[in-house]
């Protein structure tokens, strides 16, 4: 069934993305401005009048913006304004709506925590493979401001997976040290609970797995506590799905 735009009582106007797979909206999140593309001024100056109008009307004409929002100049200009795509899947769940409201109410704290974790993760990864980072022109860093030019937030999505009534939030990044794969950060409430995982399900195994650079050995006690709460919720949901499948098989 083809997705249709909807006017949500909390989330506002939601429209299908350019692939028709998810409902999205555009939101301005000032806390991510430090990670805007470093050439945003140059790219914005190259916009045509019609492209500039699309960028300036991001909040009032999302249907017109969606087909062009990934064009390089428009994409960079939106990021320069702190405007990002927020994805909710096919139809927003109560848990996704609650997670957005939580984020909106705690934006400053969440952004600050994510900055801190991203810097810690960068420093850890660079220690593991300094030669690769040197090849990518990614030097040793000590501050978030120094990290800003090397990482750009690409988009935000709220998962169908949830814990205690709040969806898990996924932040997708373009990073200079891994341009092919990018980077994903998973957040629940105001804490980062997973780094560079394929999906939320990997949270079930990432805590003690040495293959993951970000594991229990370099997480704070609060990050570990929140990760454990999410892990228990995901395990409970998985057991519930298994039971439902068993009953279905016996019908």
Explain the overall architecture.
The structure is a single chain. The chain has 251 residues and is an alpha+beta fold. The chain folds into two domains: 6-87, no CATH class; 94-240, no CATH class. 42% of the residues lie in helices and 21% in strands. The chain has an eight-stranded mixed β-sheet with strand order 1-2-3-4-5-6-7-8. Strand 6 (166-175) and strand 7 (183-188) form a beta hairpin. The protein is globular, with a radius of gyration of 19 Å. 33% of the residues are buried.
Features:
single chain, 251 residues, alpha+beta, 2 domains, eight-stranded mixed β-sheet, 10 helices, 8 strands, 21% strand, globular, disordered C terminus
